[in-house]
Specification:
heterodimer; A: 633 residues; alpha+beta; 5-stranded antiparallel sheet; elongated; B: 156 residues; Rossmann fold; 5-stranded parallel sheet; 31% helix
């Protein structure tokens, strides 16, 4: 049988699909229905010939007497071998003819002049065997047969040895040869199709079973849903991709996926088989640019083959994207509308028919996708739990700390009362109790601020640093604001430079919040009907220092005076221009939070304000550029 | 004859919430209370004698003093601020702040641990690190209880 580890299990020869014993039985049945000898010649892919004869269970079943005698080694030495060699040669010609014209049936005269036929059997559109039948009297008569019988053992077939009485018997049997029935072609076709359908069914059943076994094994390796960090999740995914790489026999496998819910720019989550210099700087996958629907996507109903020919490869963008032009096989996947992924298989050991393999590829991508996304969900839930836990701990700590001076005041009053000998210092007691009262109110306020702003507790040790392409982070974050900007009459434009940002160790969630706050700020405070640009570049000016990724949010709005620029990132600062423009002022926490997050990344945040020559109804327009600088290590 | 004044270190960075305690202990008990977490403290322990130390486990890297100035607090490389007090105690018991002269604070000085953490993690951690404070109080604590404990440890 054919090897299970050679996906897509391209059929090689018939005997790999149906055992020789079963084929012999099937062949006997064909002979009986056809009323004629029938032989299967199995295909040999190495020789590109049909060399292996599979005979029916009864020797020379339904053979014409003429052929039976000719191939009787006791009577005609070398006769059988000559027929077999000729059959192989004729089968090869039939295959060539098929490749040239597409004709599966071929009719001809054999080396002894008899009327023979071949019919090609294909599985998965590949030739796997050829049927031989015939042994009929040709329409031209038996003159040529008689001539060839007389020539046996002479120049023609000199290796064949027979005595004169056998020759005479052959000549006599030649006269008994029946002509081919008129419907012989159709009948042979029916038998060929019967064998072919059995082989195809068997092949499909085995292929499906082995693919299902493989998918099961893919689900088995535990760890993906137990990873407690993105790094470990990636490691587990790499293990899965390694299994895929071996099974699908491809050079490399990459899985791009949403790092956060709703992402349309997918980060490379795991890869195997890539050269280190490519693996270090992987591209990302842009779901929208690949022309994939944002809602209701289902890979099982998606025409992967057509999409791979058309817009699929356009999804791979950014660093080293050109390396993946040979990928040929990209399989998108999604978990509802929340998570999206794309499985990219590098050059495969053999060409595959994407349409034919669609079901399996879709299931494989879905399996990896759902494992990855479930892992992410678990990870995020765990992080959320930890965040709330630390908030609860912080709150408890604050309450306990805050209560300490209150209990101290109460303790002092109590001790004063216990120790008073007659005259009480009521003024002192009143002071202490007032202090306790004030402290109680302050404590309640502090607790509320902690609950309201627990995300603002940003310290490096609180961050979950992961390696992530900044391109993906910035693209996803900015894309999320496009609709909001449109609703508020601004156009958000993401410059192509963003796609070239490299990877960095960042807390994806918090840096996304920080950048989001900056974009939100730009949407809020820029002039209506203007454009907001998101662009980036790498700052390599000081070669002794780490390279720095710079992301800029550039809008057109009112001037931010120097003194306000100094304070704009301070907690509680309100946008100066807000009131003037009739906006509701914000708390200013957004930019303060952005600075805290960027600082925790050892980065910097800045704002500059350049005067333009543009005048608007609201006043002169200024380019306001907020920038964050993140060291990329 | 007036008894010898006892010197107590209140190793705590939250000056604001502890200064009333300091004031009371000084007024009523006539103990000499030093409320600080300043970095210079570690060196001072080698030549200054404290009779008792009250330690808060969490010491932030900086805090504000009575005049609103930023103070650089005790810090140990690679130790999270949540565990500075614990590390301080460990080093104290190992005699890392003592000097040969024997003039400073003894590694066996009585210690009372204060903690605002609400679960058993602190006591577990103390056990794990084999640190045995002479007293342990959860914030907020009863003033009487603290005073009683200090009396007990100072053997007054």
């Amino acid at each position: 049988m054919f090897r299970k580890d050679r996906w897509p299990f391209t059929p090689v020869c018939l005997s790999e699909i149906i055992s020789r014993e079963r084929l012999a039985v099937i062949e006997s049945g064909c002979c009986e229905r056809l009323g004629r000898a029938l032989t299967i010649l199995d295909y040999d892919p190495d020789l590109d010939e049909f060399v292996d004869r599979i005979e029916s269970i009864n020797e020379k079943q339904r053979y014409e007497k003429f052929c039976g005698l000719l191939r009787d080694e006791k009577r005609v030495q070398g006769g059988d071998n000559t027929c077999k060699v000729w059959d192989m040669g004729r089968a090869k010609i039939s295959l060539q003819e098929f490749r040239r014209s597409g004709n599966m049936f071929r009719s001809f005269r054999c080396h002894m002049g008899l009327h023979d036929m071949t019919y090609l059997i294909q599985v998965g559109q590949r030739p796997v065997a050829i049927l031989f039948s015939g042994q009929y009297r040709p329409v031209e008569g038996i003159d040529l047969i008689e001539e060839k019988v007389r020539a046996l053992g002479t120049d023609h077939h000199s290796r064949v040895k027979l005595d004169e009485s056998t020759r005479q018997e052959l000549l006599s049997l030649a006269e008994e040869l029946p002509p081919a029935p008129e419907d012989i072609r159709d009948r042979l076709k029916r038998e060929a199709e019967h064998i072919q359908s059995l082989a195809e069914a068997e092949y499909e059943r085995s292929k499906h079973q082995w693919e299902q076994d493989f998918l099961e094994s893919l689900r088995e390796p535990a760890g993906v849903d137990e990873a407690d960090s993105l790094g470990k999740l990636r490691q587990s995914l790499r293990g899965l991709l390694k299994i895929v790489q071996t099974f699908c026999r491809c050079q490399y496998v990459v899985f791009f996926g949403s790092v956060r819910e709703g992402d349309t720019v997918l980060a490379p989550m795991a890869e195997v088989g890539l050269p280190p210099k490519i693996a270090r700087n992987l591209p990302h996958f842009n779901w929208k640019k690949a022309n994939l629907p944002l809602r209701g996507f289902d890979v099982r109903t998606w025409d992967i083959a057509d999409w791979n020919r058309q817009s699929g490869p356009r999804g791979i963008r950014g660093d080293n994207s050109e390396y993946f032009t040979e990928a040929k096989c990209i399989v998108p996947t999604s978990l509802g509308d929340r998570y999206r992924g794309a499985l990219v298989l590098g050059p495969l050991a053999e060409e595959i028919d994407l349409q034919r393999e669609q079901r399996f590829l879709a299931e494989m991508a879905d399996t990896i996708g759902s494992l990855a996304f479930t892992g992410l969900e678990v990870l995020y839930l765990e992080r959320e739990r930890r965040r709330w836990q630390s908030t609860a701990m912080l709150l408890t700590h604050q309450l306990r700390t805050g209560l300490t001076p209150i209990t101290t005041q109460i303790g002092r009053v109590k001790r004063m009362l216990e120790r008073s000998k007659g005259g009480l210092d009521t003024s002192r007691i009143s002071d202490l109790l007032s202090k306790a009262e004030t402290l109680s109110i302050q404590l309640a306020q502090g607790a509320r601020e902690t609950l309201d702003g627990h995300v603002l507790q940003v310290e490096p040790e609180d961050l979950d640093f992961e390696r992530c392409p900044l391109s993906v982070l910035v693209m996803n974050c900015a894309t999320g604001f496009i609709e909001d900007a449109e609703r508020k009459g601004r156009t958000l434009e993401i410059d192509n430079s963003v796609e070239s940002l490299p990877e960095a160790e960042v807390d994806v969630a918090r840096l996304t919040i920080a950048l989001g706050n900056m974009i939100e700020n730009a949407i809020k405070y820029s002039y209506p009907n203007t454009k907001i640009f998101i662009r980036s570049h790498l700052d390599l000016t000081d070669s002794t220092e780490l390279a720095v990724a710079v992301v800029e949010v550039d809008d057109l709005g009112l001037e931010i005076p120097d003194e306000e620029r100094q304070r704009i990132f301070e907690q509680g600062t309100r946008g100066l221009t807000a009131a003037k423009m009739g906006y509701t002022t914000g708390s200013g926490l957004g930019l303060w939070e952005a600075r805290a997050v960027v600082a925790a990344h050892e980065g910097e945040i800045d704002v500059r304000c350049d005067r333009t020559s543009i005048r608007r109804r609201e006043g002169r327009a200024y380019h306001v550029v907020f920038s964050i600088r993140i060291p990329i290590g | 004859m007036r008894r010898k004044q006892k010197k107590i270190l209140l190793f705590e960075e939250d000056f604001e919430s502890m200064r009333d305690l300091k004031e009371h202990l000084e007024e009523e008990m006539e103990w000499d209370i030093e409320l600080t977490a300043d970095r210079s403290l570690l060196e001072r322990l080698g030549h200054e004698r404290f009779d008792l130390i009250v330690v808060d486990l969490m010491i932030r890297p900086t805090s504000l003093d009575a005049d609103g100035r930023e103070v650089q607090n005790v810090h140990f490389d690679g130790v999270n601020w949540h565990k500075i007090g614990l590390e301080f105690l460990q080093r104290l018991r190992e005699g890392k702040f003592s000097e040969k002269s024997g003039l400073g604070t003894s590694p066996d000085v009585p210690v009372i641990v204060l903690s605002a953490v609400a679960n058993d993690s602190v006591t577990n951690e103390l056990k794990e690190e084999d640190i045995h404070p002479n007293g342990y109080l959860e914030k907020p604590f009863r003033l009487d209880e603290l005073i009683e404990k200090i009396h007990e440890l100072l053997q007054e």
